[in-house]
Specification:
The structure is a single chain. The chain has about 325 residues and is of the alpha/beta class. The protein folds into 2 domains: about 270 residues, von Willebrand factor, type A domain (Rossmann fold, 3-Layer(aba) Sandwich), CATH 3.40.50; about 35 residues, no CATH class. It is built from 8 helices and 12 strands. The strands form 4 sheets. The chain has a 6-stranded mixed beta sheet, sandwiched between helices. Strands 1-2 form a two-stranded antiparallel sheet. A hairpin with a 4-residue loop joins strand 10 and strand 11. The longest helix is centred in the last third of the chain and has 24 residues.
Length: about 325
Protein backbone atom coordinates (compact mmCIF):
# COMPACT_ATOMS: atom_id res chain seq x y z
CA UNK A 1 0.00 0.00 0.00
CA UNK A 2 1.46 3.37 -1.03
CA UNK A 3 1.36 5.75 1.94
CA UNK A 4 1.84 8.74 -0.37
CA UNK A 5 -1.70 8.20 -1.65
CA UNK A 6 -3.40 8.53 1.74
CA UNK A 7 -6.66 10.48 1.68
CA UNK A 8 -7.69 12.19 4.88
CA UNK A 9 -11.22 12.02 6.27
CA UNK A 10 -13.32 15.08 5.48
CA UNK A 11 -13.78 15.73 9.21
CA UNK A 12 -10.36 17.26 9.85
CA UNK A 13 -9.28 20.63 11.14
CA UNK A 14 -5.87 20.48 9.46
CA UNK A 15 -6.92 20.21 5.86
CA UNK A 16 -4.24 21.06 3.23
CA UNK A 17 -4.62 24.52 1.72
CA UNK A 18 -2.21 24.22 -1.23
CA UNK A 19 -3.14 21.60 -3.85
CA UNK A 20 -1.88 23.72 -6.78
CA UNK A 21 0.78 26.30 -7.53
CA UNK A 22 0.77 29.18 -10.02
CA UNK A 23 3.29 30.80 -12.32
CA UNK A 24 3.09 34.08 -10.38
CA UNK A 25 3.95 32.32 -7.12
CA UNK A 26 6.94 30.54 -8.66
CA UNK A 27 8.21 33.74 -10.30
CA UNK A 28 8.14 35.59 -6.97
CA UNK A 29 10.55 33.01 -5.52
CA UNK A 30 13.42 34.58 -7.50
CA UNK A 31 13.74 37.13 -4.70
CA UNK A 32 14.58 34.38 -2.18
CA UNK A 33 17.70 32.99 -3.84
CA UNK A 34 20.36 35.61 -3.22
CA UNK A 35 22.10 34.22 -0.16
CA UNK A 36 22.78 30.52 -0.70
CA UNK A 37 24.25 28.10 -3.22
CA UNK A 38 23.19 24.68 -4.43
CA UNK A 39 26.82 23.60 -4.01
CA UNK A 40 27.33 23.00 -0.26
CA UNK A 41 30.73 24.05 1.07
CA UNK A 42 30.35 22.32 4.43
CA UNK A 43 28.83 19.09 5.75
CA UNK A 44 25.12 18.84 5.12
CA UNK A 45 22.90 18.38 8.19
CA UNK A 46 19.93 16.14 7.42
CA UNK A 47 17.57 14.27 9.73
CA UNK A 48 17.42 11.49 7.14
CA UNK A 49 20.95 11.21 5.83
CA UNK A 50 23.02 12.16 8.87
CA UNK A 51 25.98 14.52 8.70
CA UNK A 52 28.51 14.02 5.94
CA UNK A 53 30.60 16.03 3.54
CA UNK A 54 29.62 16.69 -0.04
CA UNK A 55 32.01 15.92 -2.88
CA UNK A 56 30.29 18.30 -5.30
CA UNK A 57 32.86 19.29 -7.85
CA UNK A 58 31.68 22.88 -8.25
CA UNK A 59 32.66 24.83 -11.34
CA UNK A 60 35.73 23.85 -13.28
CA UNK A 61 38.79 26.02 -13.82
CA UNK A 62 40.17 27.15 -17.16
CA UNK A 63 43.90 27.90 -17.53
CA UNK A 64 44.36 31.60 -18.30
CA UNK A 65 48.04 32.55 -18.07
CA UNK A 66 51.49 31.85 -16.66
CA UNK A 67 53.14 34.77 -14.85
CA UNK A 68 55.78 35.62 -12.26
CA UNK A 69 55.01 35.00 -8.61
CA UNK A 70 53.72 38.06 -6.74
CA UNK A 71 53.52 38.56 -3.00
CA UNK A 72 50.28 37.09 -1.73
CA UNK A 73 49.91 34.43 -4.46
CA UNK A 74 48.92 30.94 -3.31
CA UNK A 75 52.10 28.83 -3.26
CA UNK A 76 50.02 25.87 -4.44
CA UNK A 77 49.71 27.55 -7.86
CA UNK A 78 53.47 27.68 -8.42
CA UNK A 79 54.56 25.91 -11.60
CA UNK A 80 57.72 24.20 -10.38
CA UNK A 81 58.92 23.09 -13.81
CA UNK A 82 58.83 26.63 -15.20
CA UNK A 83 60.29 27.96 -11.95
CA UNK A 84 63.21 25.52 -12.17
CA UNK A 85 63.82 26.32 -15.84
CA UNK A 86 63.72 30.12 -15.47
CA UNK A 87 65.07 30.19 -11.89
CA UNK A 88 62.29 32.67 -11.10
CA UNK A 89 59.04 31.69 -9.33
CA UNK A 90 56.10 31.47 -11.72
CA UNK A 91 52.45 30.68 -11.01
CA UNK A 92 49.64 29.31 -13.15
CA UNK A 93 46.52 31.49 -13.18
CA UNK A 94 43.06 29.99 -13.68
CA UNK A 95 39.65 31.54 -14.24
CA UNK A 96 36.44 29.98 -12.96
CA UNK A 97 33.93 28.62 -15.43
CA UNK A 98 30.78 30.74 -15.45
CA UNK A 99 28.29 28.56 -17.26
CA UNK A 100 28.07 25.19 -15.59
CA UNK A 101 24.92 23.27 -16.51
CA UNK A 102 22.26 22.51 -13.90
CA UNK A 103 19.61 19.92 -14.80
CA UNK A 104 16.41 19.74 -12.72
CA UNK A 105 14.33 16.54 -12.59
CA UNK A 106 10.93 17.53 -11.23
CA UNK A 107 8.38 14.91 -10.13
CA UNK A 108 4.70 15.79 -10.73
CA UNK A 109 3.24 12.27 -10.69
CA UNK A 110 0.02 11.41 -8.89
CA UNK A 111 1.98 10.18 -5.85
CA UNK A 112 2.98 13.82 -5.31
CA UNK A 113 -0.66 14.95 -5.11
CA UNK A 114 -0.89 14.64 -1.35
CA UNK A 115 -0.47 16.84 1.69
CA UNK A 116 -1.70 17.18 5.26
CA UNK A 117 -0.12 20.49 6.21
CA UNK A 118 0.36 23.75 4.31
CA UNK A 119 0.61 22.41 0.75
CA UNK A 120 0.81 19.27 -1.37
CA UNK A 121 4.09 17.52 -2.18
CA UNK A 122 3.60 18.48 -5.84
CA UNK A 123 3.55 22.18 -4.85
CA UNK A 124 6.56 21.82 -2.54
CA UNK A 125 8.48 20.18 -5.41
CA UNK A 126 7.47 23.00 -7.76
CA UNK A 127 8.71 25.64 -5.32
CA UNK A 128 12.00 23.81 -4.74
CA UNK A 129 12.53 23.57 -8.50
CA UNK A 130 11.76 27.27 -8.98
CA UNK A 131 14.24 28.28 -6.27
CA UNK A 132 16.92 26.03 -7.80
CA UNK A 133 16.30 27.43 -11.29
CA UNK A 134 16.44 31.07 -10.21
CA UNK A 135 19.55 30.37 -8.12
CA UNK A 136 21.29 28.74 -11.08
CA UNK A 137 20.97 31.70 -13.44
CA UNK A 138 21.78 34.12 -10.62
CA UNK A 139 25.09 32.26 -10.22
CA UNK A 140 25.80 32.49 -13.96
CA UNK A 141 24.96 28.85 -14.70
CA UNK A 142 22.78 27.39 -17.43
CA UNK A 143 19.67 25.59 -16.25
CA UNK A 144 17.46 23.03 -17.96
CA UNK A 145 14.76 20.68 -16.71
CA UNK A 146 12.86 17.45 -17.20
CA UNK A 147 9.39 17.74 -15.67
CA UNK A 148 7.50 14.45 -15.59
CA UNK A 149 4.16 12.98 -14.56
CA UNK A 150 2.65 9.51 -15.06
CA UNK A 151 2.32 9.96 -18.82
CA UNK A 152 4.85 12.40 -20.22
CA UNK A 153 8.16 14.22 -19.80
CA UNK A 154 8.46 17.92 -20.69
CA UNK A 155 11.98 18.97 -21.64
CA UNK A 156 13.47 22.47 -21.41
CA UNK A 157 16.91 22.89 -22.95
CA UNK A 158 19.53 24.54 -20.72
CA UNK A 159 19.74 28.31 -20.93
CA UNK A 160 21.04 31.24 -18.95
CA UNK A 161 18.11 33.62 -19.21
CA UNK A 162 14.93 34.40 -17.30
CA UNK A 163 13.01 33.20 -20.35
CA UNK A 164 14.48 29.73 -19.86
CA UNK A 165 13.38 29.70 -16.23
CA UNK A 166 9.89 30.86 -17.22
CA UNK A 167 9.70 27.99 -19.72
CA UNK A 168 10.66 25.52 -16.97
CA UNK A 169 8.13 26.99 -14.56
CA UNK A 170 5.45 26.94 -17.24
CA UNK A 171 5.98 23.21 -17.77
CA UNK A 172 5.83 22.61 -14.01
CA UNK A 173 2.57 24.54 -13.66
CA UNK A 174 1.10 22.74 -16.66
CA UNK A 175 1.66 19.27 -15.21
CA UNK A 176 0.84 20.44 -11.69
CA UNK A 177 -2.63 21.56 -12.79
CA UNK A 178 -3.29 18.21 -14.46
CA UNK A 179 -3.17 16.48 -11.09
CA UNK A 180 -6.51 15.44 -9.62
CA UNK A 181 -7.70 12.74 -7.25
CA UNK A 182 -10.19 11.58 -9.92
CA UNK A 183 -7.59 11.14 -12.66
CA UNK A 184 -8.12 8.27 -15.09
CA UNK A 185 -4.35 7.87 -15.52
CA UNK A 186 -3.00 5.05 -13.32
CA UNK A 187 0.17 5.56 -11.26
CA UNK A 188 3.24 4.80 -13.35
CA UNK A 189 6.42 4.21 -11.35
CA UNK A 190 8.34 3.53 -14.58
CA UNK A 191 8.25 7.24 -15.43
CA UNK A 192 10.97 7.79 -12.85
CA UNK A 193 13.29 5.49 -14.81
CA UNK A 194 12.33 7.08 -18.12
CA UNK A 195 13.21 10.50 -16.73
CA UNK A 196 16.54 9.22 -15.39
CA UNK A 197 17.32 7.66 -18.78
CA UNK A 198 16.73 11.02 -20.44
CA UNK A 199 18.88 12.73 -17.81
CA UNK A 200 21.72 10.28 -18.47
CA UNK A 201 21.69 11.33 -22.14
CA UNK A 202 21.49 15.05 -21.37
CA UNK A 203 24.20 15.00 -18.68
CA UNK A 204 27.34 13.47 -20.23
CA UNK A 205 29.72 15.09 -17.71
CA UNK A 206 30.20 17.94 -15.22
CA UNK A 207 26.49 18.66 -14.79
CA UNK A 208 24.77 19.34 -11.46
CA UNK A 209 21.68 17.10 -11.50
CA UNK A 210 18.99 18.04 -8.97
CA UNK A 211 16.42 15.27 -8.44
CA UNK A 212 13.23 16.62 -6.81
CA UNK A 213 10.89 13.78 -5.83
CA UNK A 214 9.37 11.85 -2.94
CA UNK A 215 11.34 8.76 -4.01
CA UNK A 216 8.30 6.73 -5.04
CA UNK A 217 9.11 4.13 -7.71
CA UNK A 218 12.88 4.36 -7.29
CA UNK A 219 13.77 0.71 -7.95
CA UNK A 220 17.03 -1.12 -8.68
CA UNK A 221 17.01 0.05 -12.30
CA UNK A 222 16.56 3.63 -11.16
CA UNK A 223 19.45 3.33 -8.72
CA UNK A 224 21.66 1.97 -11.49
CA UNK A 225 20.75 4.96 -13.67
CA UNK A 226 21.53 7.38 -10.82
CA UNK A 227 24.88 5.63 -10.31
CA UNK A 228 25.62 6.01 -14.02
CA UNK A 229 24.78 9.71 -13.91
CA UNK A 230 26.83 10.19 -10.75
CA UNK A 231 29.99 8.74 -12.29
CA UNK A 232 30.67 11.94 -14.24
CA UNK A 233 28.23 14.40 -12.69
CA UNK A 234 27.12 15.74 -9.33
CA UNK A 235 23.73 14.82 -7.86
CA UNK A 236 21.62 16.46 -5.18
CA UNK A 237 18.35 14.80 -4.13
CA UNK A 238 15.63 17.01 -2.67
CA UNK A 239 13.40 14.44 -0.99
CA UNK A 240 9.89 15.86 -0.68
CA UNK A 241 7.95 14.46 2.27
CA UNK A 242 4.83 15.13 4.31
CA UNK A 243 5.10 15.39 8.12
CA UNK A 244 2.36 12.77 8.44
CA UNK A 245 4.92 10.12 7.52
CA UNK A 246 6.86 10.97 10.67
CA UNK A 247 3.94 11.97 12.90
CA UNK A 248 1.13 9.47 12.49
CA UNK A 249 -2.06 10.86 13.96
CA UNK A 250 -4.19 8.56 16.07
CA UNK A 251 -7.29 8.68 13.88
CA UNK A 252 -8.89 6.52 11.18
CA UNK A 253 -7.59 7.26 7.66
CA UNK A 254 -8.60 5.99 4.26
CA UNK A 255 -5.72 4.51 2.25
CA UNK A 256 -5.71 4.11 -1.51
CA UNK A 257 -3.35 2.59 -4.06
CA UNK A 258 -5.11 4.42 -6.89
CA UNK A 259 -7.49 1.54 -7.59
CA UNK A 260 -8.73 0.25 -4.24
CA UNK A 261 -9.17 1.89 -0.88
CA UNK A 262 -9.64 0.82 2.72
CA UNK A 263 -9.95 2.47 6.12
CA UNK A 264 -7.14 1.87 8.62
CA UNK A 265 -7.35 2.69 12.32
CA UNK A 266 -4.10 4.44 13.23
CA UNK A 267 -4.98 4.45 16.89
CA UNK A 268 -3.79 0.83 16.81
CA UNK A 269 -0.22 0.84 18.16
CA UNK A 270 0.80 -2.17 16.07
CA UNK A 271 -0.36 -0.54 12.82
CA UNK A 272 1.40 2.71 13.66
CA UNK A 273 4.63 0.93 14.57
CA UNK A 274 4.60 -1.13 11.36
CA UNK A 275 4.15 1.92 9.14
CA UNK A 276 6.82 3.94 10.93
CA UNK A 277 9.28 1.04 10.66
CA UNK A 278 8.48 0.66 6.95
CA UNK A 279 9.15 4.35 6.35
CA UNK A 280 12.39 4.25 8.36
CA UNK A 281 13.59 1.24 6.35
CA UNK A 282 12.66 2.91 3.07
CA UNK A 283 14.63 6.05 3.93
CA UNK A 284 17.57 4.09 5.32
CA UNK A 285 17.94 2.21 2.03
CA UNK A 286 17.84 5.43 0.02
CA UNK A 287 20.29 7.07 2.42
CA UNK A 288 22.72 4.14 2.14
CA UNK A 289 22.57 4.21 -1.65
CA UNK A 290 23.22 7.95 -1.89
CA UNK A 291 26.02 7.76 0.67
CA UNK A 292 27.90 5.45 -1.70
CA UNK A 293 27.73 8.24 -4.29
CA UNK A 294 28.56 10.82 -1.60
CA UNK A 295 25.48 12.65 -2.86
CA UNK A 296 23.59 15.01 -0.53
CA UNK A 297 20.06 13.98 0.44
CA UNK A 298 18.06 17.03 1.56
CA UNK A 299 14.60 16.38 3.08
CA UNK A 300 12.10 19.12 2.19
CA UNK A 301 8.83 19.15 4.12
CA UNK A 302 5.37 20.31 3.08
CA UNK A 303 5.37 22.30 6.30
CA UNK A 304 7.47 25.46 6.36
CA UNK A 305 9.05 27.81 3.85
CA UNK A 306 10.97 25.86 1.20
CA UNK A 307 13.63 28.54 0.82
CA UNK A 308 14.33 28.62 4.55
CA UNK A 309 14.59 24.82 4.63
CA UNK A 310 17.14 24.86 1.81
CA UNK A 311 19.17 27.56 3.53
CA UNK A 312 19.27 25.53 6.73
CA UNK A 313 20.18 22.29 4.99
CA UNK A 314 22.84 23.96 2.86
CA UNK A 315 24.42 25.63 5.87
CA UNK A 316 23.05 29.17 5.52
CA UNK A 317 21.40 30.87 8.50
CA UNK A 318 18.19 32.70 7.41
CA UNK A 319 18.38 36.47 7.72
CA UNK A 320 16.19 38.09 10.35
Amino acid sequence: MDWSRVKRNTATSNRPQGPYTSLDELVRLQFKVRDFSLKPTQPVTSILSGRYGSRLRGRGLNFEELRRYLSGDDVRTIDWKVTARTRTPHVRVYSEEKDRKVLLLVDQRINMFFGTREKFKSVTAAEAAAIAAWRAIAAGDRVGALVFNDETILDTKPGQSSQTVLSILGNIVKLNHLLTKDTATPPNDDMMNRCLESAARLAPHDVLVVLITDGSGLDDSGQQLISKIGQKNDIITLLIHDPSRLELQERPLTLSDGKRQMEVDFSNDKVRKTLLEHYAKEQSQLQHFLRKLTAPLLPISNQGDVGDQLRRLLGVVPRR
